[in-house]
Amino acid sequence: MGEKTDTEYVESRGGTMPRGASAIQLTLLVVLRLVVGWHFLYEGVAKLLTPGWSSANFLTMSRWVLSDWFHRIASDPGLLRVVDLLNICGLIAIGLGLILGCFTRLACLGGVAMLALYYIAHPPLVGLGFGAPAEGHYLIVNKNLVELVALCVLLMFPTGKVVGLDRFIARLWAKWRAARRRKKGEEIAEVRLLDRRTVIGSLATLPVLGGFAVALVQKYRWESHEEKHLKQRVDAVTRATIKTFDFAGLKDLKGQVSTAKIKGVDFSRLILGGNLIGGWAHARDLIYVSKLVKAYHDKTKIFETFLLAEKCGINAILTNPVLCGVINEYWKRDIGKIQFISDCAGKNFMDLIRLSIGQGACACYVQGGVADQLVQTGEIDQIAKAVELIRASSLPAGIGAHHIITVKTCVEKGILPDFWMKTLHEKNYWSAKHPQQHDNIFCLNPEETVAFMKTLEQPWIAFKVLGAGAIHPKAGFDYAFKNGADFICVGMYDFQIVEDVNIALEVLPRYAKRERPWRA
C-alpha cells in the first residue's frame, strides 16, 4: 500500500473536508475558525487579567430553565470560584485550540457547550428581556447563538487537518498506526512525519497567535499609559483623583440586613428609597441631575438594582405610584419579590392610594409634602380619611412629614398611624448653612424631632437621613438609629447597595439598647 497524498489523507479520515472544496471555501472556513478562536481567547485572557472578576452577577441574573442551578452556583463561594476558574481556562483553551488548529473538534465541542450555557443563562426571548447588559437588542438570536452555529459548522469541517497542528497530529497518529501494522507483518509504506507541506500547514496560524499577543500587549500598555496620563493631568490641574471605579459587589457582602414587623408585615431595617429611580434627585441647584438619574435607571438597571437589594436582605422599596408598572413587571417576570411601600404622592392622593392598593403595595402612607400642606391649610381631616382608607384594605397605614409640627398636630387630633415617616438628619453639612432654603434641608429641627418621636409608640421610618447625598452613610445611619429610627429609607444606586448594607450591619448592633426603645 503506497503513501497517500495530503488530499487523499484528509479525505480518508472520515471525509472531514468537502471533496473538491475550492481554495476560497477552505480559506473562509479557516478564517472563521481563527476569528472565533480570537474572540474566545480574548474573553478568557481579559477575565484572567481583570482583578476580582466573577461570574456571580451573570449567574444571579439568570431567569430561564436552569436559573435555580445557576443561582446555587452564585450563592456558593467555593463552587463559584471553581466555575470561574473553569470558565477562564475553558475560554483560553478553546481559543488556543481554534487558533492553532489543535484538537479542533474537541475545541469546537467545548465552545458549543459553553455558548449553549451562556445562551440558556440569558436567552433573548420575548418576556425575558431582562438580563446581563448587552451591546445590542436581540430577539431570539444573539451573538452567542451565532457563534454556536459557526462552531457547529467548524465541527463538521475541522480545518485543523488542513491548516493547523491537527495536520501534524494526524501524521503522527498515522505513523504510529503504520508502525503497529508493520509489526503484525503487513507491508505498509513509511509515513513521513515531517515534510515541507506538513510543517507549513501545521504552523501556518502561529503568526495569528503572535498578532494576538502583540495586540493584547498594546491594548493594556495603552490603557495603562492613558490612565497614567489622565491621572497626572487631572491631579495637576484640579487636585482631583481618577481611580478605577471599583465598588463593593456581592462577594464583599458581610451579611443580610435584619428585618422587623409593622402591623404583621416584615420590613428590612434598611429600605430602598425610590427617588433616584423615579428621578427626584433633590440635587439642590444642580438642575440636570434628575434627568441624569432617569437616564441611568433604564428598566434593566432598575431590575438589577431591585434584585441586588434583595440579595442583600433589603425587602422593600419606598416610592411613588408612578413606578407601579415597572414594579409589577419585575414581579410578573418572577425576577424577585421586593415589596412596594407607596407614598401615594400626587394631587389626587386618595385616588393614588386606591391605585397603589390595586397595584400590590404592601403599605401606604400620606407623603410628607402632602401631609405638611394639609396641616398647614387646616385640612387634617383628609389625613384621617386617608389613613382609614388604607387600613380598610388591611395594609399598614402611615403618615409622612418633613416638619415635626405635622406629626405633633396629628397626635393632638388623635390621628395615630401604624407607622411614621419623618425626616431626620443633622445640619452639619455645608449647604445646610446656606441662608436660602433651596432643596437643601429636610429636617429643620432634628433635636426637636428626636425628642418628640421618643414619646411615640408607633414604628418610625426615618428618611432623608443622608440629607439627599450630603452626609456620608456612616454618619447618617449612626445618627438615625442612635436617635430612635426603627427603619431608615435611603436612596441608593446599585453600586452603593452592598456598601450601605455593610455599614448598616456595622451600626445596628451598637444600638441594641438605646434611649428610644425599638418600636418594631
What this model shows, in words?
The chain has 520 residues and is of the alpha/beta class. It contains 21 helices and ten strands. Strands 3-4-5-6-7-8-9-10 form an eight-stranded parallel beta barrel, surrounded by seven helices. A two-stranded antiparallel ribbon has the order 1-2. Helix 20 links the parallel strand 9 and strand 10. Helix 2 crosses helix 7 and helix 16 crosses helix 18. It is elongated, with a radius of gyration of 32 Å. The N terminus is likely disordered.
Write the layout of secondary structure elements.
Blueprint: H1 6-12, H2 23-49, H3 56-60, H4 67-75, H5 77-100, H6 104-121, H7 143-156, H8 165-183, H9 196-203, H10 206-238, E1 259-262, E2 265-268, E3 270-273, H11 275-278, H12 289-296, H13 299-311, E4 316-319, H14 324-332, E5 339-342, H15 349-358, E6 363-366, H16 368-376, H17 380-392, E7 397-401, H18 404-412, E8 419-423, H19 446-453, E9 460-463, H20 473-482, E10 487-491, H21 497-507
Parallel strand pairs: 3-4, 3-10, 4-5, 5-6, 6-7, 7-8, 8-9, 9-10
Antiparallel strand pairs: 1-2
Helix pairs in contact: 2-5, 2-7, 5-6, 6-7, 8-9, 16-18, 20-21
Core attributes:
single chain, 520 residues, alpha/beta, 8-stranded parallel barrel, two-stranded antiparallel sheet, elongated, disordered N terminus
TL;DR of this structure?
This protein is an alpha/beta fold and 520 residues long.
Structural class: alpha/beta
* Structure summary, number of beta strands: 10
The helix fraction, in percent, is 40-55%
Proportion of beta-strand residues: 5-15%
Number of helices, where a helix is a run of at least 4 consecutive DSSP H or I residues: 21
Q: Could you give a short account of the major beta sheet?
A: 8 strands, parallel, barrel
- Mean pLDDT reading: 85
Read across the widest sheet, the strand sequence of neighbours is 3-4-5-6-7-8-9-10
Quaternary arrangement of the chains shown?
single chain
**Low-confidence sequence ranges:** 1-16, 229-246
- Ends: how far apart? 91 Å
Shape: elongated
Rg, Å, rounded: 32 Å
